[in-house]
């Protein structure tokens, strides 16, 4: 299943209230090596190659911007799941996560 996911650096930043600060942060992240910057859930989500994660975190730290950074597996394609199927999926993911040999569970669900 690993071929369905790509290892990526992901940095989450609280969304600045000022549009000019948001744009400045986006440009600083891109200059530091970000591949993509998206807005969602009250955050800026910065995607990069894992080796660029430290540089992006350093740039954000120098700007006084709090951020959470981690290496994550992101899906190559996403699927929409709703209703009963979504509940089944969440139960499966929880059951997998509870297994002692499992360290991380990922899904390609939107």
Look at the structure and give the mean pLDDT: 92
Low-confidence stretches: none
Kindly report the spatial arrangement of strands forming the biggest sheet.
Answer: 2-3-1-4
Supply Rg: 16 Å
Structural class, from secondary structure content? alpha+beta
Strand segment count: 4
Helix content: 25-40%
- Give the CA-based shape: elongated
What's the helix count? 3
Q: End-to-end span in angstroms?
A: 17 Å
| Largest beta-sheet characterization | 4 strands, antiparallel
Element-level helix/strand string: EHEEHEH
Strand content: 25-35%
Describe this structure in words.
The protein has 110 residues and is of the alpha+beta class. The protein contains three helices and four strands; from the N terminus they run βαββαβα. The chain has helices at 19-31, 53-62, 83-98, and strands at 5-14, 34-40, 43-48, 68-75. A four-stranded antiparallel sheet has the order 2-3-1-4, with helices on one face. The longest helix has 16 residues, at 83-98. The protein is elongated. The relative contact order is 0.21. The mean pLDDT is 92.
Provide a compact summary of the structure.
The chain has helices spanning 19-31, 53-62, 83-98; strands at residues 5-14, 34-40, 43-48, 68-75. The chain is an alpha+beta fold and 110 residues long.
SSE map:
Blueprint: E1 5-14, H1 19-31, E2 34-40, E3 43-48, H2 53-62, E4 68-75, H3 83-98
Antiparallel strand pairs: 1-3, 1-4, 2-3
Observed structural traits:
110 residues, alpha+beta, 4-stranded antiparallel sheet, 28% strand
């Amino acid at each position: 299943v690993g071929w369905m996911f790509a290892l990526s650096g992901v940095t989450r930043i609280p969304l600045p209230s000022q549009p000019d600060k948001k744009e400045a942060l986006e440009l600083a992240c891109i200059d530091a090596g970000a591949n993509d910057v998206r807005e969602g859930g009250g955050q800026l989500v910065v995607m990069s190659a894992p080796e660029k994660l430290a540089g992006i975190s350093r740039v954000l730290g120098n700007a006084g911007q709090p951020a959470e950074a981690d290496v994550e597996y992101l899906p190559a394609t996403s699927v929409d799941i709703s209703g009963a199927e979504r509940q089944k999926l969440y139960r499966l993911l929880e059951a997998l996560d509870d297994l002692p040999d499992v360290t991380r569970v990922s899904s390609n669900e939107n």
